[in-house]
Amino acid sequence: MGGKIIRQTDRVTGVDELKALCCFLVVCIHAKTSLTIGKYIVGLARIAVPLFLMISGYFYHCSSREKKRQQLIHISKLFVYGQAIYLAFELFLSCIIPSRDFWGYFTWKNLMLFLFVNEPHPDSAHLWYLLALIYVLCISYYCDNYISVNAKSVFCSVMIACFIILGTYSKAIIGKALPELLIRNFLFIGFPYFFLGEVFYEKRLKFEKLMQKSIAIKAVGISIVLCSLLEIYIVSRLWPEVDGTVYITTPLLSVFVFAAFILKKGNSKILLKIGRDYSTVVYIVHLMVYLLQGMVFKRLGAYNISMIWAPVICFLNSLLLAVVCDWIKNTHKAINDSRS
Fold this sequence. Notes:
Blueprint: H1 13-30, H2 38-45, H3 48-61, H4 65-96, H5 108-117, H6 128-143, H7 149-166, H8 170-174, H9 186-202, H10 204-211, H11 214-238, H12 249-262, H13 269-300, H14 303-308, H15 310-339
Helix pairs in contact: 1-2, 1-3, 1-12, 1-13, 1-15, 2-11, 3-9, 3-12, 4-6, 6-9, 7-9, 11-12, 13-15
């Protein structure tokens, strides 16, 4: 980028590749492989949501006020559409599976969890990220200009540390594994990584100089990955009941991967296309696709075999659905344009 201020007409193509990677990592988290290495894949894939939030914060920081308002509206629409899709899907499942109680989800308790800790319907649990981002964008829209970059840096460090203490290492530090929903929300994940994206934008020239030291940077990257794998192994052995949403190495790995992609020019046409046009739909529909493909493979008697390649199968099926949706949208637009 050469230290230039990003204009709204600019497109950092490395980010499109990063979005393609992130949506695959999110699929890996939910459509877990049955292989022994599955826990390590999931552990490393935990950087996906932090990276999505950092991308949002990075571009939010250099956006005009009107662009910020449009972004808030866009994310809000995505969340509403996503929830509508999954409510319809849950209604469909309750019709074919009598044991599923559709109306049982509409309780005051679930409403409070939805509002305060961004916990949506169980079958659309991954949409907590969109709701958390809406909270972050709403507050940032009015307060962002009054908070300095240094204050944001301190806040990032404190909240990420609190998340690690109350999350992955809660059993070790306070003697009790806390529910994930208490800390997987806008406060402990949303704001810290969104702010981290803004801080990165402000410090981008320093990061650019660091990333130019190719040999040293590669060594740092390999070291972080190895430390991440070691930490995942230790946590899984000592505290198997704890869901390691974020490890100590997760923020470090997130920043490294973010810098590696955002400071490069994307050159993979396939990844650019996936990240630019399909990543959002893949993110929204993949959990529904995973549940449906599980039902199909059970019927075919191939469920155990399918679980080995579950992330890949789910990602490809979700991508196919995204391509179909994009084709329908473009066709509809072309028809309307021809009529006008």
